[in-house]
Design goal:
Elements: H1 2-11, E1 20-24, E2 30-35, H2 38-41, H3 48-60, E3 69-74, H4 78-86, E4 91-96, E5 121-123, H5 128-146
């Protein structure tokens, strides 16, 4: 998670919300890294998880990301949860909860929904305070600059 937090801080350089995701293979090697780039790319789908999954699929040459773990600083949203399920990622670890749009246990629980053909093991709240503080600081600064 510390790697993800360090990567999330890089999103600040282009004005994006500081969220980052890393995909690790079974040996613990990072095979995909992504950070929010919606502002940078002007792409509404450029969430950290989506970019990390794309990078991991490219690195492995396979969209099936079985045997991997996705580590992300913020609870995945519904779009990202759908991508995680589609990629067959078996484990997700996240830091801060997203009480507005989270899809891994707060607002929705798509990753563990028994009606879907694939379910994910979820570990929530890892380094939660550090992840939450990074986001809170970003939004406090954004509000003060916009005022």
């Amino acid at each position: 998670m510390r790697e993800a937090i360090a990567s999330a801080k890089l999103a600040l350089e282009h004005g994006d919300v500081p969220v980052a995701a890393l995909v690790f293979d079974a040996s613990g090697t990072a095979i995909g890294v992504g950070r929010n780039e919606r502002e940078l790319r002007q792409d509404p789908t450029a969430h950290a998880e989506i970019l990390a999954l794309r990078a991991a699929a490219e690195a492995t040459g396979d969209w099936h990301l079985t045997g991997t773990t996705l580590v992300v600083t913020l609870e995945p949203c519904p779009m990202c949860a759908g991508a995680i399920l589609a990629a067959r990622v078996p484990v997700v670890v996240f830091g801060a909860w997203d009480d507005k749009a989270g899809a891994a246990g707060s607002v929705y629980d798509l990753l563990r929904d028994r009606r879907l053909p694939h379910r994910v093991e979820v570990f929530a709240g890892v380094e939660e305070e550090a992840c939450r503080r990074l986001l809170l600081d970003f939004f406090v600064n954004a509000r003060s600059e916009g005022a």
